[in-house]
Structures are given as structure tokens and as C-alpha cells.
Amino acid sequence: MADLATLSSSYPSQGTLIATLHALLTATPPSFMHITDAHCSRLTSCALKRLLDVIALESDHKTVYASASISAVAAFTPRILFDSILNALARHSPTWDDGCANWSCTDGARYNESLDSFIWGIKDVHDYLRRNRNDAAVEVRMVLLVERAERLLPELMVALTRLAELTQTPLTTIFTSSLPWYDIKPPLGAAPDPYHLYVDPPNQKSTLQNLSTSLTEYLPSGSHYSILTRISKESIQSLQAPYISALHSVCGHFVSDPDELTYLSATLWPAFLDELARLATEGGVDYEEEEGELDITDELKLRLLKAFSPKFREALDVLYPRLGSAPASSLSSQVPSRLNLTRTEKYILIASYLASTNPTKSDMRMLYRGSEGGRRKRRKSSVLTSSRKGKDGAAIKVPQRLLGPTAFPLDRMMAILGNLMVEHEEDLDFGNEGTRERAAEVEVGRAGLLGAITTLTQAHLLTGTWPTYKCAVGYEAVLEVARDVGVSLGERIWEAP
Amino acid sequence: MATVPGLKDPNQTVICIPYAGPEEDQEDRPLQVPSHSPYTSQDLPDGFGLRMEVYRAAWKECLDRVQSIIEALHAPKIQELAEEVRSAYSPSQTIPNLPYPEIPTFCLHGPAAFLQDVTREILETPNIAGCHLHPSDCTNITSAMKSLISAFVNVNAAETNPKKRPALSLASYDINMLRAWYDHLEEGTCTQLIVVFHQFEQFDSAVLQDLFYICSLHVPELPFVFIFSLSSQPSPSYLHATYPRDTLALLRVRRVVAPHGWPLAKQILEDTFFSLDFEPEVMIGPAVLDYIVDYFTRYNQSTDAILTILQLTYMKHYDNPLTFFARDSLLGTSSPAEAEQKLSKPTFFPFLDALFTRISLPSPAPALDPLFEPDGEPGDDWSDVTVASLLASMDVLREKYKARLRDIKVGYRLMNLMKGVLVKVGYDTSAKKGNLEVEKEDVELMRRALRGRCARESKTIGAAVKELSAAEAKELLSSMHSFFQDLPGHVRRKEDKARVKIVSWKSQLQRGMEEEELVAFLEAIGDWVTQYLNDRLKSLEECKLWDIWYTGSSPIPSEMINPAPRATIISALLHPYEYAQPDTESEGKAPHAPKLWELPDTSILFRRYLEGGKMINVYDWYESFAVVLESQRREIRRERRSDAVASRNKSDGKGKGKARAVEDEEEEEEGGEEWRMQVQARFIRALHELDYMGFIKHTGRKADHVLRTVFDVLD
Fold first, then answer.
1. Which UniProt key words apply to this protein (chain B) (predicted)?
2. Which residues of B are less than 8 Å from A338 in CB distance?
């Protein structure tokens, strides 16, 4: 039982689940269970695997436990699924020298051909486990754990849920998934209803506990500061609790997954120690001169946390979406700050943003530069329109910019693009009034430009397929791009902010 | 057609398909296309082949140079990266306390050659097993896993595993098999399993997500290292745009960007065309540099773009018949005597005539040019000229051109060097806007140097020199000294005067001098620098026959690199004769717009198409087409009647189709059934051609109607 207690303490948010499951499996196991965990499924699977190991150790002369845990994603064909389950239940690991042979109770028996042979395989494993004990009275209990069950091959789902019934063996199937059962269950009620278990979302206490158990190695191996070696391990350890609670107080609001927080804490910890060393070296002569072990004063601790706290937020912005990766020493430099586009791509981006936000009917007014020279300045001021509408009592229209992009046909974007280029590209020779439109059309239809559209689609700055696209870039990014090429975006947007 | 080298090679950017004469069975030969080259009359009979040879040699030289530059630029990055990959699992690279181990991943943004160099470098290391995955291997997860596992397992294990019975053992796509294989290896024989994903953008992301997940379940027991090869820019990031966060969380991504953009372009151009130890056969002119700058900013910032442009420039350059003199005057023979003999044949006379005329013309700007001594100038007395002397004078001209080019290079290099020193000591020599595009400015400077328009720069530099302090002047002089010292032998001899001057200045400065003395001293240096640079940086076009070695301001045929297909097709349909007979106007014919009935069938139909509405009734279309054909027939008949003998040739010469020829025979029969059949056939053929080009959309909505796809065509 001691093992169970340590298990519960290392997986605090799964504590209830572990206890329940242990009780169920050792007493009267149901044949099919489903565990829903929408919050930290990786941790739950780890906990369950550990639990199964613990239970297997509890085998005695009366009962023998055997278990197999597989991931439904990894079992992408029935054969892999069958092989892995049988090998795991029989505790057989194929070796290379043996020709990677699967487990079989008699030489040449094959269990991975079909579901039928697999069921015979389960029976054979059951017999084999019982025979191993040389005791007729021994009871064999088998547990099959399937992670990410929502990805299970549909043709196998029903069979696995009814495996105990099909094989007539004491076997428990446990599905874990981040989705609830009714979202993944096979149609027509083919599967029996499972015994439902839920994992609670992690609360602050359990998360903090999780964080502190994961932070076990205190000194990073490759630190630049020799001073760290002079600080005693205990005093560094004493920094752990304030470090973790500071981290949690900043990042906990945005990220609830304990895995992510652990990742953040692990990647930031070396930087945190470096900061400590820096403060300690610059902080005072007394640290330098003293020989032997150093102590961390409360004052230093406070200064350290204060100096370091902005880093948490910064690291969260970069590390959570994995824009950069650890080591965290140079996080901000890892993120390419601006879009690296060619001039043509920039124009396309601006034109497609306009096509996505402006109403089609406004194109002529907003963009066309007619033969009389100069754009027609009949643009309605957005401020005026909205206030007038407001006064009339009619519903105020929300600007398209806030509603998200609309799809546009390629031709419309090209027309906008042509007009933009005529007006802003002095380098290209569009000739005089008469030939300008034609020249622009030629310029817009160039192979390089059409290729750039594909490039942008590939980079997901445009979405959609020929011939309708959507602009997938926000106002700020387009504004920056427009500034680069000298287009004043504000004049072109129908409802300018 | 089968003999074209490189046609099947997907890595070729440009392939030259030599014209092999008209195909025999080409039924449709209406428009006899004369050669476009304006030089035909002056060319040698075997000129094309000769120039092709010279072109190949010259381009190969240039290409090798560019590639070696790129390689040299890549080398340090590759070393650094290989080191990181090797230490991917060492404690200094990994972070302790992570919730789960990540897969070290390297994202290479760069051309395929870069990836090849990297993988070669990495996979050479012992203890590392590598595997290449291509998008075609990974159409689904089973085949992806199979290729991944078999690539590792089958390398050296085929002989060691005789006991394997496929049905009774693990599946070949089961990762446990890889695990078993890895476990059986002795400790340390294989420390990393490197998986290289080629053309990463082309992979199915759903398959790779599963692949990454499965692999991550077995890390670090199986020490995977992934290398992605991406051709897209690092920002916006393809990886982050395509893969969800939970997949990215399995990887520890490190980006590596191959040298790219302006720094690379500048380096390539400078070291190929402005290098003192490399003399390319063809010097690119400012027009090409302009185009490179333009194309680079506008469309494509890759080395391939530069290479393509350069290759096209070379190709176009060797269109000029004189260019086989670029390398030597042997004309493809092995000795000057043979060349002379060859040239003395009567068929070569038009060429000789043209060449002689070119040589006898006065040099474009002889007065400005101290290098051209009046004596020895070929063509002084036309009666003395023999073929041999003509060839010899070509050699003289070539040497003169080369000397001039060296001058420009020395001038450009020295200017750059001085600019660098001056900037370092705090003088701003040019109005640079921000640091972002310094290299772009440098390319512009190259352009100006070639045009001989650097007077402003040399003046600024001279002025800046005059304001230096003694210590700064010392620094400048010593770097100038080492510049002249390091020149390659043949150039150094020529610049000896300048070198001696600098040495003496240097020693003067070393001795120390008074304030006023220094001012006068610097004044002298500044004036000398301005003068020296001005002397060196003069336009290459002042050389005689420069067009053999220098592309000058002849524009690059940009339509070939960056065509506008839609506009071209439409305008070709509207004005077919402008495409098929480009030199009618040069021959002095009055440029007359052909009447509708004079156009080919497809063009007639297209004109009618443009007059239609959004949807076209096919029968109406046919009727209007038939009217035009009717008038065409009438016109031709009238012509024939008026000029019974010449009419046939004339109508052929104008380029009517075979249809017209056929029509001639049948013309006698009065518009019977036969004629209607013919009109129908021609209509259908023209219709299908338009359909093929995408001008028609078929909808089932309205019977006998087709939808237009092109509107508002600007004529």
C-alpha cells in the first residue's frame, strides 16, 4: 500500500482516480471502463500505467494480474494492436536475435491475422498465465488500457469494448480519452455502456505539488557561473518554493495544463539560477570574498524574484506556442519578429486584406484611380457614418475588420492589386494614362506574382484555394507591411479604425 | 529531340533546346517564322554551334565560381550545425526536469544543396544512423512508418536476421521492431537515429503528426533526431502555421537559416564579377544588375533566382555573332593559322565585312581614353588589313578590354575598402537609410561603377580623407597598403606606382609632422584618391568592340523569367501577326492593321467572343464566324481574279492557314455542302483551341450556351 501512497502523491490531481481504480481492479473489476480527462491526459496515462505496475506487484498465490497499455494512435493497423496487446499481456518483448518473433504458446501459432485469431490469442495468454503458476486455483486478471481511445480504429472499437465477453476471460478494458464517451462511442449501441470515471481539473494545490515534484535536479550542468557551486544545495532548494509559486501566479491564469507549467519551470530554472549568480556576484563584495559555502539572504531572494518575474510572462509568450524553444537564454531573439516577404508578396497581402475587409461595392470608390486623375475622394468618413446611423436609431453595423475576413475571388484581388501598384510603384513603368490599365494587368498576371500567391497560401497568410481566398492576417500586421511599401492603409479601408 | 542534355534533369533551371528545323509532319505551317536575330546576315555558317561551345564553357566557369562562393559561405554554418546535431542528446543541450523528453529537431531553411551538404557532413560521423524520408514515402502512416523503420533496420541487418518469419513476428511498420533492432546493437554503436525530411512542406501534416507522436513515445530509448528541410522563409513559419501546438510540444525545434537575401546576393555578385583573382568571360552590365536588384526585391530572394538570371544573360549574350571571339580568336580550330584559313573562305565574307566595319569605326570615346594609343590601332589603313591582322587585332582588343576591366575592379575594391575604413572611424560616406539594406546599396554601387558614374563617391571619399586625423590617416594608409600588397601578381605590377606612393606617404606619416604640414599632406592624398578612383572607374563601353565581353545596357529578356501568360495569350490572339512576324515593320512595309478576315480562325473567333455577352449562344457565334469566313473567301477570290499568277503566293505569304490552301482548290465549287462542312470544321477547331486555353466554361444551365471567362479585355 505504500506504493499506492507515493503514486497518489506524485499525481495529486489523479489521486481520487487512482484510489477508485485500484479498489475496483483488485476487488470486482468491471469489464469495460471509460476515463474522461480533458485537462492533462498525458499525466493521467502515466499515472494509470504506474498504477497497473503497482497492481501487478500485488499478485499473490490467489490472483495474478497482467496488463497491457497501448496508445490508439500508435496502433494504426489491427496487426500492431493485436501484437502489442498479446506481447504485453504475456510479458514478452520481441528481440532482434529471435527474429522479432511475437509471443505464442505453441510454436507457429499466429494471432494477428484477424480479430478471431486475436480472441484465441487472448484465451491462450490467459491459459498460459494460469499454467505458469502451476496452480489450478489461481485467478488471472487481465487489464487492457487504451490511451487516446478516440483515435481507435473504428472497426476494432466494438470488439475491444466487448473483449471480456468475446473471450470469456476476466479481462478489463479501460479507455482513456480527452473526449467523453458519448462523443466517441460507436453507433447503433453496438458497444456496452462503460463504467464512467472522470478526472477533475487540476487545482492550484495539486499543480503546485506537481511542479515541485518535477523539479528535482537543481544545478544545471553547464552553468557559466562558478559561484553557484559555492551555494549550498539546501539554500538553492529553498528557492524552489518561491520560484514555483511566482511562476504559477503569473502563468497559471493562462495555462492550466500542469505539463506545460512543468515545461516552463524546467526551461526557466537555469536562467533563474544564472540570474541568482549574477545578482550574487554584483550584489556585494561579501559574497566574493567569503570562502566556503554561501548563504542566500532573504533580501537577495526578494531581489531575485523581483528581477526575474518579467521573464515568466515573456517566456510564456514564446514557449507556450513553441515559437522558440529552450534553452531559454535567448528567447526573444529566437522569434523572428517581422514577416519576411518580398515586395510583391507584401502588395498581395495588402490587396487581399482590402478585398477581405472592404465591401465589394466600395472598391471603385476606394481604389480606382480614374482617367480624370486622382482618386475620387467620395469616401464616407467612418466616424460620420456610424454616428449618423446611431442617431437614426438603426442598428450600428459592426466593421468587417472586427467580424473577420470574407472570402474574395482572385480576380477582384488582382484588380485591387493592379490599382495599388499603379499608384505606388514608381519603379515599374506603367506608361501614360491610356496604357496604364493594360500595363497593370500585364504586371498583375506575371508568373512571379501568381507564384507568390501560392507561397503566401502555403505560409497560411492567405487561406482558401483557387479561385477564392481569404486573408488570414490581422490589421496590425498588414499595417506594418503597408508602411514598408508606402501604402497608406487607412485611406483604403472602408471602415478605418 | 532526344539529344538535348539535361532535359530530364529536374534540377536544371534553364535548358537550351536547339532549333532542329520544322517537323516534317507538321500539318499547320501557316506562319513562316523568320529568324528573330538581327545579326543573321553577319553570322558565320557554323556560328551557332561555335557560340554554343563558347557559351557552355563560359557558363560552366561562372557557375562553378558561384557555387564555390555559396559553398564557402555555407561551410561555417554547416560545421556549427553538425556539431549541434551530434551533441543533441548531450546534457549541455538538454534541459533537466522536463515533463517528458522532447525530440531534438532542426529546421533548415534553405536550398536543397544546403541540406545535402548538411546531411553529408552529419551522416559521415560514425555512431550515427541516418534515414531519408520523402513526401512520396509518407502518403499514409503505415507507409511512413515502414519507410522509416526499414531505412534503419535494413542498412546492415539483412544478414544478421535469418530467423525472421514475417507472419509470426512484428510487422515491418511496427516501431517495436525498431526498438528491438536498436536494443540488439552494442552499446555506443549508434548514438543517434537521424531522420531527414526532404521537402517538408510537401508532407501530409496529418501523417507527420502521428509519426511524431509515435516516435515521441519511444524517446529517449530510441534517440531520434529530426531534420526538416524547408524551402520557405523562416518567417512566416510554415511549421507553426501548419502543425498544432501539441505536436510542436513534442519537438525541440532549432531553426537554422542558410545564408540568404541581400548579403548573399552581394557576396555572389562581388566575388564573381568584381573579384581580382577571377575573370569571367562575360561581364554583366548595369542593366542586368538592375534587373537582379528588381527581381530580388520583388519576387524571389533565392540564389536560384540569381543563377537563372545570370545564365539567361549569358545565353542571350552569345546570340551576338562576334561573341565567339570572347575567349580566343581561334574560331573553334586549334591554331591561329587554321583560323585564318577558315575565315578566308568565301562564305565567311559577309562576316568579315561586318567585323571589319566594326573595328574600323572610331572608338566611342577615344579622347577620354588614355589607354588607346593611336599607333597599332587596327584598321588605320584598310588596304593593309589581312585576315591574320584582323585576328591579331582582336587579340589586342581583348587584352585592352581585360586591362580596363581590371582597372574597374581595382577601383571598385579600393573604394569599398576606403569606405569601410572611413565608416569605421566615424565618417558617413553615403546617405544610407537604416542598416537593413546596406548590401542593396552596395549592389547599386557596383552598377554605378560599371557605368563609370562614381565621381560623386570618389569626391566624397577624397573630401573625407582630407578631414582625417593623423592616427586615422595612418590606419587608412596601412589598409590601403595591404590592399595593394595583396593584389594578384599581374595586377600588382600595373599598380606599382600607386603602391610606391602609398608606401612613401606612410613613411612620411611615421616620421611625424606639424599641424599645417598634415593638412597639406592629407590634401594631397585626398586629391590623389579622387583622381585615382576617377581614372579607374570608367565605363567599359568606352572599349572597342566591348559588346563581345560585356553585356552593357542590353536589357535582360525578362519575359522569359517572369512571363505574364494571360496577357500574352490574349494579346497574341488579338494581334497574331505581331507575334509571328516581328520584323515586318523593319522591312519597311507600311504597318497596317490586318482586317478581321485576314486573321487566323482562332483569332476571328476570339474577336467575336469579345463582342458577345456574358453567355454566348454557340449557334449565333458560329453564324457570325461563318460571315467572316464568307467575306474572307470573297476577298481571296477577288484577289486571285485580279492577279491570277501572284495571288496564290501572296495569300500564302500573308500566312493564312492550311485551311486557306485547301480552300483554294475547292473554291471553284459554288458554296455548296462542301463549303458549309468546311466552315463547321474550322469553327469547331477554333472553338476547341479557345476551350483548351481556358476561355470557355461549359455550364449545363442553358442549352447551346457557353460561359465567357474573360471580360473587359483592354486592347
1. DNA replication, DNA-binding, Nucleus
2. 235
Is the CB of residue B597 less than 8 Å from the CB of residue B628?
A: yes
Q: How far is A146 from chain B (nearest CA, A)?
A: 14
Q: Are residues B540 and B576 in the same domain?
A: no
CB A112 within 8 A of CB A83: yes
Average confidence score pLDDT of chain B: 78
B606 and B518 co-located in one domain: no
CB contact under 8 A, B95 and A259: no
Cross-strand pairs, A174? A33, A145
Q: How far is residue A404's CA from residue A397's CA, in Å, rounded to a whole number?
A: 14
Confidence of residue B22 (pLDDT cuts 50, 70, 90): low
Q: What is the pLDDT of residue B158?
A: 54
Residue B402 has a pLDDT of: 85
Its sign, for the CA torsion B434, B435, B436, B442, is positive
State whether B107 and B255 are in the same domain: yes
Put simply, the answer to whether A94 touches B562 (Cβ < 8 Å) is no
Rounded average pLDDT over B490-508: 84
Span B171-178, average pLDDT:
89
Residue A232, Cβ neighbours under 10 Å: how many?
A: 13
Mean pLDDT of A52-66: 85
What are the residues whose beta carbons fall under 8 Å from the beta carbon of B284, sequence distance 6 or more? B273, B310, B313, B551
Confidence of residue A375 (pLDDT cuts 50, 70, 90): very low
Give the gap in angstroms from C-alpha A19 to the nearest C-alpha of chain B: 23
pLDDT higher than threshold 50 for residue B661: no
Same domain, B671 and B524: no
**Helix, coil or strand: residue B257:** strand
From the list B162, B213, B254, which residue is nearest A73 (CB)? B213
For domain A2-198, give the fold. Rossmann fold (3.40.50)
Interchain pair A83, B563: CB under 8 A:
no
Percentage of chain A modeled with pLDDT above 90: 22
| pLDDT for the residue B374 | 43
Tell me the residue type at B659.
Answer: A
How confident is the model at residue B196, as a pLDDT?
92
Q: Indicate whether B134 belongs to any domain.
A: yes
Q: What CA–CA distance (Å, rounded) separates B428 from B448?
A: 19
Judge whether B21 is closer than 8 Å to chain A, CB to CB: no
DSSP at B604 = H
How does residue A181 score in pLDDT terms, banded at 50, 70 and 90? very high
What range does the domain containing B481 cover?
400-431+444-548
Cell of A115: 480479430
A252 has a pLDDT exceeding 70: yes
* pTM score of the predicted model: 0.78
Q: What pLDDT, on a 0 to 100 scale, did the predictor assign at position A385?
A: 46
Closest alpha carbon to B329 in B403, B394, B402: B394
In chain B, which residues have their Cβ closer than 8 Å to the Cβ of A222? 91-92
The answer to whether residue B359 sits within a structural domain is no
Q: What ipTM does this complex have? A: 0.87
* Total structural domains within chain B: 3
Looking at the domain assignment, is residue B285 inside a domain? no
Hey, what's the cell of A358?
A: 472592404
Report pLDDT digits (tens) over B323-353.
777 777 777 677 777 777 777 777 777 777 7
Same domain, yes or no: B248 and B190: yes
Is B299 in contact with A449 (Cβ distance < 8 A)? yes
Q: How far apart are CA B377 and CA B396, in angstroms?
A: 9
* Distance (Å) from the alpha carbon of B573 to chain A's nearest alpha carbon: 15
The Cα B114–Cα B82 span in angstroms is 12
Does residue B696 belong to any structural domain of this protein?
Answer: yes
